[in-house]
Amino acid sequence: xxxxxxxxxxxxxxxxxxxxxxxxxxxxxxxxxxxxxxxxxxxxxxxxxxxxxxxxxxxxxxxxxxxxxxxxxxxxxxxxxxxxxxxxxxxxxxxxxxxxxxxxxxxxxxxxxxxxxxxxxxxxxxxxxxxxxxxxxxxxxxxx
Length: 144
Fold this sequence. Notes:
- This protein has helices at 8-39, 66-91, 96-105, 111-138.
- The chain is mainly alpha-helical.
- Helix 1 packs antiparallel against helix 2 and helix 1 (8-39) packs antiparallel against helix 4.
- It is elongated.
C-alpha cells in the first residue's frame, strides 16, 4: 500500500489542542463537581455546608466515587497534556517562559481554554508569515 506523509508538527499540535480541551473539561469537573461533593456536601464531609440529597448520599463525602471518575483521570490526562506541550514547544521552538505558561494554564479553570485559543491564533499567524516569506523567496527578481 502507499505511504502517507505525516507532518509531525501538525500531529503534535492537534494532539495538544485535544488534550487542552479535555484537561480543561476535567479540571472544571474537578473544581466544580468532585471537590465540592467531597468536601462541602454531606454529613460526613470535611466542611459539611449542606446535607446530601436523600438517596444520593453515596455520591458525597470523603468516599465520593467522583474522585475515581473525575480526579484520577484528570491527573493522568494532565500528565499527557504536559508531555505533549513539551513536544510542541520543542517542535516549535518556544521559550521556557511560554512553555511553562502553557503548562500552568492547565491548572487554572477556564484559563486553559483561553491560552489554547491564543496559542492557536499565534501559531496560525506564524505559519501564514512563514508561507509568505517562502513565497517571496521563490519569486524571480525583477529585471530592468
